[in-house]
Specification:
The complex is a heterodimer of chains A (546) and B (481). Chain A is an alpha+beta fold and 546 residues long. In chain A, 29% of the residues lie in helices and 29% in strands. In chain A, the strands form 6 sheets. In chain A, strands 4, 5, 6, 7, 10, 11, 12, 13, 14 and 15 form a 10-stranded mixed sheet that branches. Chain A has a 7-stranded mixed sheet with strand order 19-22-23-27-26-25-24. The model of chain B has no long low-confidence stretch (mean pLDDT 90). Chain B has 21 helices and 17 strands. The relative contact order of chain B is 0.09.
Amino acid sequence: MAIITLPYRYLERLTGTDRQTVIDRIPMIGADIERIEEDHVDVELFPDRPDLYSPEGVARAMRGFLGIEEGLPAYDVRPSGITFAVDPGLADIRPYLGSAVIRNVNLDEEAIESLMGLQEALHWAVGRGRGKVAIGVHDLDAVTPPFRYIASPRDRSFVPLDFEQEMTMEEILADHPKGRDYAHLVEKFQRFPLIVDAEDRVLSFPPIINGELTRVTTGTKNILLDCTGTDRRAVMTAVNIICTALAEAGATIESVTVEGEEMPSLAPAERVVSLAECTSLLGLSLTAGEMAGLLRRMRFGAEPDGDGKVRVLVPCYRADILHDWDIFEDVAIAYGFENFDAALPATTTVAREHPINAVAGAVRSVMTGLGYLEVIPFTLTNERVLYANMQREPSPGTLRVLHPISEEQTVVRTDLLPLVMEMLQANKHRELPQRLYATGDVVVDCVTSQKVAAASIHPAADFSEAYAAADVLCRELSLSYTVRESADPAFLDGRRGDIIVDGKIVGVFGEIHPAVLNAFELEHPVAAFALDLTAVPGYPVLPGTP
Amino acid sequence: MELTLNEKRLLVALGPVGSADAASLADLMDSRREAVVQYANLAGERGLVDVEKHVSRRYVPTKEGRAYLGKGLPERQVLESFGETIPMRDLQSHPLAKIAIGWMRKKGWIAIRDGVVQKTGATAAGADEVAFARLGETGAIEDGEGVPDLLRRGLVQEEETVTYTVSITPLGREVLDAGLDLQEEVGTLTRDQILSGSWKDLPLRRYDVTKLPKRAYPGKVHPYQRIIDEMRRILLDMGFEEMAGGIVQSSFWNFDALFQPQDHPAREMQDTFFLGERWPLPKGYERVREMHEHGGKTSSTGWGGTWSAEKAEQCVLRTHTTSLSIQHLATHPEPPVRAFCIGRVYRREAIDPTHLAEFEQLEGIVMDEGVNFRHLLGFLKEFYGKMGFEKVRFRPGYFPYTEPSVEPEVYVEGLGWVELGGAGIFRQEVTAPFGIEHPVLAWGLGISRVAMLRLGLRDLRQLYRSDVEWIREMPTYGGRR
């Protein structure tokens, strides 16, 4: 999530209202207040609204929302005459370049920090960690146009930001902190992306690091922006958001010619949307004029277009508008969520419990009646608990997670009894007797099914207790079964039985083997059983697995 | 005043003597001392007897002490083993020399010069020896001179004896004099007594109702499961059909079908549990691909770029139950649909008091002709109200697969407004590829947070740790806050 710092003084100057109004109302355009401090407020903004990741962007939206300034913000773009060539050799490395010149910036320390904050937030939200888009801002007056974006040999060297000596690009990947962080994005390529000026001086090694040469300071008056990446749309989104934010702060924007294309245009996109589609989605009755008015408060250009349509001009920085419904959401936000009249539809429907849960309910009722206490173990576990402790062979259908978070949780459970045993271990200091059961999902070969397992620990726990409990549960679930001597190594030989239905083993019961008791550090005999609930007559098969 | 038989027998025994210690009363009553004390305390509460407790301390020999009894302390035994002088080397061969030499010097009995031990003549028995000799005769001694020395040397140990003296009070005497019925009481009714009618004359033993019973623990459904069942009942009451489905899902159903872009951070291995397994794409998956690439036949632009079928086949542990909702809608595209599910979902988070790698999520969907955003808010108000949250408010939210999106907040006494879950209307990019033509209202929430509020927990892990004592003590009804 993007957390943006909004200094009150700057925000008040930009919005033309007081800090309290902004703090009170900002959640209603879609933001969470993180922290309210003496001189600033930190707000968390949604990942689909990178245009709000700067005080300028927030102020622009709030001016509209509060009715101070409505409609489409206009941004003039004059040609700078500067050109940028793109090396075709970058096609498979990092093909897209967006650029702009931003003149007459007025950068104090706070403004630089805010610009860096916007850049970082865009790297995260639009750039996907710099892979998709990486942004560089440069002091234009330190270099000489025209510029070239090239695929350079890896041993080219320059002085990277925050360093004093030249390093080769390979050294930067190995030794510069930013190089180490982002090396994975380029190290597989034979050549590396590089931006140089007319005199072959290095501005930037995207997406890794800028050169020290073009460092932006409080003395910087004019900025050259470069956005490189692998997705053209995302690259231009980043250019538009940065240019319009700086324009809001008073800078002027000039275009750059990249391979013959003038950019940025900062022009809005047009959409003609249906009033009826909007009102039926939101459940509001609005005229086209009212709808257009609400959209202007969200800084769209909007006018009724006759025939139940509204013509909408979408600002170039609104990367989140993919579909007409995205515009309708802004109508709802401008209308105010607090002003909606909540209602229930008149349609009646018939409820139905899922049959799997009907069986689970029956299991709970029987086990509770037998005096068993329900436990809810995790579904992620490990092979020691599942197999080694139980003296059982690992099931070939066991699912391993690829990147486990700890050694305790490496596989999905295939059985419940080991987890009930683990619960007995966790409760060994509690009063005996303890009778515990669990019911729920297990997964074998990607297929989810349900089991029940129960265990009773006390000095007199024995085979007959286990048999009686397994038998009563089967009878109560209308499950007719036969029993054979079991070979399950988790149980004691001569004191274990398999529950057989249609010639298949669907459960087991008996006295737990003392070696298993040792493995779970238990000090008394345990009578236990486990049952595969899919054996219950009429048990449903889960649809669409997985 | 109804006395127990034992109290009556105690008064009878005390009658002739007036006062006696518990041990001798036990002899008289043919009972045990502890039992007599118990009867006496009971009678004492009624004011029939006085019970006086005496604690006395005596000293008895320790194991080491017992070894010297009758022979004298080691230093005395060694002193008497030689004449006036003895070479040190010879003396050291005495088995007790190690202990004795130090004490003999300390007590001034000997002097050692040039390796020769010489008696000083001042070898009279001290208080410790006197006390030790008395111990030898009686087996136990009271505190007195010399005893602290023996205690320090670990030769004797303290033994505490508690005795009780029971005396009859004037009230007790009065009750005794009024005459007592000493007929034997009966503990349990037998079948014979019930059938024969002899129960009419039976003196049944009375029980003390002020005593707490032995604690019994019933079988129980887990407190968290009870809350889950309560939520299920609310949704069933509201006309919702219950859904269920697999824990393992293909990325297609978990992400792509929900219009989550393939480069979305949630799809990276830091946030989601990926599995090595793959699952083939369903028929008609191309419509989802078209939606991602250019927005299909809707007004959407799509995400652009190239959609990878290979990425969509990768299996994951489901990160939300929305993967079940979209499959339910895909198989039930005709209105009306009201469906819900409560199921476990997985996030790749390190476990701490507020984060778990697996937890339960509740999700409800409504698809019908003409349902709209106001109805979504209506369902949310109704649902949270039935859960006991009467004050609900709504803020704009963001979820990748809904538009508009809303974050409901509920008011909790003592905590203020608490964000609880998320909601919205499924994007057309989500519904259109499956031929769903009407709006789908959807909401979901992590119900472990509700359970924590209800059960007063601070640590989410407690829900899954299943501490037997906690489950035993948590009331089945009314345990909520």
